[in-house]
């Protein structure tokens, strides 16, 4: 394998940027291979926030090459009996804890394979029960980059704590969905597909209307638009929609008076 054909590795964690942990992860990866290219998806996922990690990883996966490798280390149960897994979904490889971080990145409508990994799958002596990311996950990623076959790593298994996400429910007038994430700008990501159009209810706001862009709506008024992740988002021109609406991830959102379903 040459550098021209090296695989891309997407890395997402809740480690922040204060400590040495990200550097240690990358050093451990490159100790196993010189061929991969690491892309930092985010290292500022809220501590232990598995659902936000799952959402952000699924967004990034939309634009990564099909054969990318993703390592997710938001792992509040590290060192427990939770499974460490490697998943093959299409050409995509996912490596990390079986705790839901990959729930939105698995292609659930296709066949996917799961293998359980452990210390027997690495060939170094660093085996910290508090840092599986450095000592297990990225070394396994390096092996895949070096050309080791998926079937040669770990043992056949099944997911125990990662499940297919729920989809919006159809109502008499539209769909009921969920707030998935609120980004740095205050934009509210939902799970309602862009193909649906109408009015939105969210929190105390009953008639949130459509706008084509952030800047084409009056200041201080919530509006919804087609999000870049393929789903509807609610925003506020020059403001924080999440704070104005008073909502958090997991809260309900409803679209009604359906105008079109494309």
- Assign the CATH architecture of the largest domain: 3-Layer(aba) Sandwich
Structural class: alpha+beta
Mean pLDDT, rounded to whole units? 94
> In the CATH hierarchy, what is the class of the largest domain?
Alpha Beta
CATH superfamily of the largest domain: S-adenosyl-l-methionine hydroxide adenosyltransferase, N-terminal
Uncertain segments are: none
CATH topology of the largest domain: Rossmann fold
Shape: elongated
Which characteristics define this entry?
262 residues; alpha+beta; Rossmann fold; Elongation Factor Tu (Ef-tu), domain 3; 7-stranded mixed beta sheet; 7-stranded mixed barrel; 4 helices; 16% helix
General description of the model:
This protein has helices at residues 21-32, 50-61, 132-145, 241-245; strands at residues 8-13, 37-42, 69-73, 84-89, 92-97, 112-116, 155-156, 169-170, 175-182, 188-193, 196-202, 205-210, 222-226, 231-236, 252-261. The chain is an alpha+beta fold and 262 residues long. It has 2 domains: 3-156, 3-Layer(aba) Sandwich (Rossmann fold); 169-261, Elongation Factor Tu (Ef-tu), domain 3 (Beta Barrel), CATH 2.40.30. The strands form 2 sheets. It has a 7-stranded mixed sheet with strand order 2-1-3-5-4-6-7. Strand 1, helix 1 (21-32) and strand 2 (37-42) form a beta-alpha-beta unit. Helix 1 (21-32) packs parallel to helix 3 (132-145).
How is this fold's topology laid out?
Elements: E1 8-13, H1 21-32, E2 37-42, H2 50-61, E3 69-73, E4 84-89, E5 92-97, E6 112-116, H3 132-145, E7 155-156, E8 169-170, E9 175-182, E10 188-193, E11 196-202, E12 205-210, E13 222-226, E14 231-236, H4 241-245, E15 252-261
Parallel strand pairs: 1-2, 1-3, 3-5, 12-13
Antiparallel strand pairs: 4-5, 4-6, 6-7, 8-9, 9-10, 9-15, 10-14, 11-12, 11-15, 13-14
């Amino acid at each position: 394998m040459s550098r021209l054909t090296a695989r891309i590795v997407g890395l997402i964690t809740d480690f922040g940027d204060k400590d040495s942990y990200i550097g240690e992860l990358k050093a451990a990866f490159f100790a196993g291979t010189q061929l991969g290219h690491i892309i930092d998806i985010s290292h500022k996922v809220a501590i232990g926030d598995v659902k936000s990690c799952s959402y952000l990883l699924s967004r990034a996966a939309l634009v990564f090459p099909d054969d990318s490798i993703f390592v997710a280390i938001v792992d509040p149960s590290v060192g427990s009996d939770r499974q460490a897994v490697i998943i093959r979904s299409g050409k995509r490889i996912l490596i990390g804890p079986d705790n839901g971080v990959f729930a939105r990145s698995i292609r659930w409508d296709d066949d996917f394979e799961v293998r359980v990994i452990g210390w027997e799958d690495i060939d170094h002596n660093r085996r910290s029960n508090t840092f599986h990311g450095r000592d297990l996950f990225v070394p396994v990623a390096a092996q895949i980059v070096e050309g080791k076959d998926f079937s040669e790593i770990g043992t056949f298994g099944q997911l125990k704590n990662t499940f297919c996400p729920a989809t919006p429910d159809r109502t008499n007038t539209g769909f009921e969905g969920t707030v998935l994430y609120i980004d740095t700008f205050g934009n509210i990501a939902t799970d309602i597909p862009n193909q649906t159009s109408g009015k939105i209810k969210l929190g105390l706001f009953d008639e949130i209307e459509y706008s084509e862009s952030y800047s084409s709506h009056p200041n201080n008024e919530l509006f919804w638009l087609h999000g870049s992740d393929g789903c509807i988002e609610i925003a506020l021109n020059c403001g924080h929609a999440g704070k104005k609406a008073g909502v958090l991830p997991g809260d309900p959102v409803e679209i009604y008076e359906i105008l079109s379903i494309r």
